[in-house]
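Reopening this one. Same input as before:
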Amino acid sequence: MTEPVRLRPRRRCPICKEPSQQRYHPFCSARCAQVDLNRWLGGNYAIPAEEDGPGED
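Same output, byte for byte:
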């Protein structure tokens, strides 16, 4: 089987920094994809919100 033509350079996995795999892009494995999903579902990637002061709508 031939390697697919890449339009962008290969990136590192955001979880473990190993080279990413086409099948799990942008991750290197199903494990790292699951770790990332768990972080999203656990609220680790939440953007902090500023509370409105009293009397502000």
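So the earlier flakiness isn't reproducible anymore. For the record, The radius of gyration is 18 Å.
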